[in-house]
Amino acid sequence: MVDDSRGVSHLDAINNLTATIKRDGLDRRGESNRVLAVGVALLVLLVLNVAVLLQNRSRSLQNGEILKNSAATSEYIADCTTPGRPCYQKNLANQGALLTRLLTSEAFVAQCAKVTNTDDELETCVNERLKAAGIGLQLDLSTAPPEPGPAAPDPSPTPAEAQDSDVTP
Predict the structure, then answer these.
(1) Would you say the pTM of this structure is higher than 0.85?
(2) Given a cut of 50, is residue 1 above it in pLDDT?
(3) Which among 25, 31, 97, 116 could bridge 122 via Cys, Cβ 3.0 to 4.6 Å?
(4) What whole-number distance in Å separates Cα of residue 86 and Cα of residue 94?
């Protein structure tokens, strides 16, 4: 080995140069790995943002349909609850006709009750009069009205039952 004027052999210089080149290469690879990692992270964020955007668009379309249906329902409700509108007027006429039928049938029940002795006779008498009057109701006495159930208990305690926890400030 040949020594130069500084006392360093050429072999040592080559080894030092090789080590420096390897170290620079590793530094560059580490830096390039960091850049690659940042790039991959940004790509993942971009994909997630696109997925969220597509999901929001889908929900927006669904909400649009719901709003259209809600608007139609609201219009129907307004039509049936606003005086002068067709549905309201139709329901008003139907209520009047039903009330007339009920009052007429009640009058027939009162009239027939004076001249009949049994429920069957009363039912026949009322139905004949309803039919003669052209009213589409039929009286059916075969089903008894339901018996009233037990009364619900009073939820408020009596003064003797009251406790401190029952009192709200």
Answers:
(1) no
(2) no
(3) 116
(4) 12
